[in-house]
Amino acid sequence: MGSIEPFNRLVKLAARAFYDDITTKGENQPKTGRSDNRGIAVVILDALTRRQWVREEDLAKDLKLHTKQLRRTLRFFEEEKLVTRDHRKETAKGAKIYNAAVAATADGQQTGREGDEKLKMHTHSYCCLDYAQIYDVVRYRLHRMKKKLKDELESKNTVQEYICPNCSKRYTALDALRLISPYDEYFHCESCNGVLVAESDKLAAQELGDGDDNARRRRHENLKDMLTKMEEQLKPLIDQLARVKDLPVPEFGSLQAWELRANAAGRSVNGDLNANDPSKSSQGLGFGGTPMPYVGETKVEVAFSGIDQKGENVKSANSSAPMKVLPPWMIKEGMNLTKEQRGETKVETKGGSLTASELSDDKKSTTANDDAKNIQDEYVKAYYAALLMRQREQEEAVKKEQESGNAAMSNEAYNTSTERQVGMKSKREDDYEGDDNEWEEAPPTGGTTEHFKVKDLNVEAEASEDDEDDIDWEEG
Amino acid sequence: MFFHIVLERNMQLHPRHFGRDLRDKLVAKLMKDVEGTCSGRHGFIVAITGIESVGKGLIRDGTGFVTFPVKYQCVVFRPFKGEILEAVVTMVNKMGFFAEAGPVQIFVSNHLIPDDMEFQSGDIPNYTTSDGSVKIQKDSEVRLKIIGTRVDATEIFCIGTIKDDFLGVISDPGATS
């Protein structure tokens, strides 16, 4: 699912690399087989990659963990700066806000949660992965590991030792002050006044007592081994870091902000019939960025034939890029976009408010909310497939026209697109319809563009026609 | 690193100072005794900034000296491993160079000088890069990192390194004068 996937992979790799044998039990507690909870850290991190903000009790329930244990691990992760947590006192009402947010983002795939109608004030904790920081933390950790080993290997920060060739008395650099002689620039032995020589291939002078040559060599070998092993074993992680490097980091914002956005998005998704003024209900937040719900797992597969399939392919081929939901009019063919970016949710909101109202006429009683949503989903997907194709055609056409030096034509082509921005809401539906009729039959030529343009201009009137078309689609 | 701490010391005062300005005499003697000394635990006592309290004096049998327990505030300087210091080079030789950061002597061995700096003997022994752009000689100021300390009861000696990022000469007196 788009650009959060590489980050989730990063988290999973890091979890396995560094937090595999983390046990949250204190030192004093007896380590019986039963209390051995190593690996739990990995499980929790994995679970978090499939969620956004999540209430810790819910997470515990989902993982069948004890809340205490989960909390202890989460506190550890918080110290490790992998997760951000938020605690707040809230009543059942406050919890409801969160529930609503979850419901909104869950896209109908409610994960085994119940209503939680509690009336007491409770302090609830929420947690969420902090991808930006995780990226930095992992990089820093790797850097420190490498640096430490390398330093030891090169005996960079170790105390130089000196040895007297005559009496083989050993000194360290810490004795330097006593060893300098006023006559020359060498160190002199305190006992025999011989010139000291620096001990050359010395390593890790922390072990001053262990002066044995073999031991030192062994140690050197060990360090080298460790370094190569580290590089080998952490290669996937490092690769993943490199992959993630230029991707924009998924950002959920603070709990409140997230809830707000999720709720707002959810409202419009659920087809708020009264708020049929889409400009009010969805547009305000829609373009800013509707949050991606439960990013890892919510995937609506639409088994369409023909167009839609193609659309899917195009989308997945381009799936690695910024997470922000782009307004549809900004989506051009060359862009790398994920489905989220295409504003799946958001468009649902648009289409939702329209179709839902239409549906309400004849289908209201029979169609459950979920069904409506699915239909909207499918519709939207199909629409986007079409839109994408059309944009590509358009652009090709524009290119062609430009090549042929027909400035006027290309201008017109651009005009169409700007036009669409302005009157977007109602026209969109029509675009879609016009499109997917069009692009299959018509080869991309300058003429086509013209054609589109004409369609675009008389869009408004056709909006109603579109809906019937739409419904046919779902059922067919 | 500098610390402002409160220390205590038993001061012995000669009976000839007993009089109106006993307290002043006591403080003057304290300063004379304590400032500039070094204790392994607290580091160098740089300056006394104030007297916290002077306890009851106790007359020693036989001598007539009086012992006052004095609590005083002072600034101490204690170098730590890993600390970055700026120091003035005092001596350069084949084995490395010595530098001073206030009261602390620091030795930087030639292994801990970047590999591209070579020792040049002569009238003014120095370490110079191959292109001659950076030169470490007596009175140069260097930024170094302490990698080891030896703390005796009355002495602290450090060894440092300039073989790391952002360490090395910070101003060359030859260039400025």
TrEMBL record, chain A:
The secretion signal range is none
For the region Disordered, what residue ranges are annotated?
269-290, 339-370, 395-476
Gene3D superfamilies found in the cross-reference section: Zinc/RING finger domain, C3HC4 (zinc finger)
Q: Which GO terms describe its biological process?
A: transcription initiation at RNA polymerase II promoter
In terms of superkingdom, the source organism counts as Eukaryota
GO cellular component terms attached to this protein's record: transcription factor TFIIE complex
Q: Does the keyword Transcription apply?
A: yes
Name by which UniProt lists this protein: General transcription factor IIE subunit 1
Q: What is the lineage of its organism?
A: Eukaryota, Viridiplantae, Streptophyta, Embryophyta, Tracheophyta
Q: Which gene encodes it?
A: LOC105178526
UniProtKB/TrEMBL annotation, chain B:
Q: Where is the RNA polymerase Rpb7-like N-terminal domain?
A: 8-64
GO terms under cellular component = P-body; RNA polymerase II, core complex
Chief location of this protein? nucleus
DNA-binding as a keyword?
no
Q: Where in the cell is it found?
A: Nucleus
CDD domains assigned to the protein according to its UniProt record, in alphabetical order: RNAP_II_Rpb7_N (cd04329), S1_RNAPII_Rpb7 (cd04462)
Q: Which GO terms describe its biological process?
A: positive regulation of nuclear-transcribed mRNA poly(A) tail shortening; positive regulation of translational initiation; transcription initiation at RNA polymerase II promoter
Q: Does the keyword RNA-binding apply?
A: no
State the Gene Ontology terms under molecular function: single-stranded DNA binding; single-stranded RNA binding; translation initiation factor binding
* Keywords (A to Z) from UniProt: DNA-directed RNA polymerase, Nucleus, Transcription
Report the transmembrane regions from the record: none
Q: Which residues form the signal peptide?
A: none
Q: Where is the S1 motif domain?
A: 79-156
Q: What does this protein do?
A: DNA-dependent RNA polymerase which catalyzes the transcription of DNA into RNA using the four ribonucleoside triphosphates as substrates.
Q: Which family does it belong to?
A: Belongs to the eukaryotic RPB7/RPC8 RNA polymerase subunit family.
The protein's name is DNA-directed RNA polymerase subunit
Organism of this sequence: Sesamum radiatum
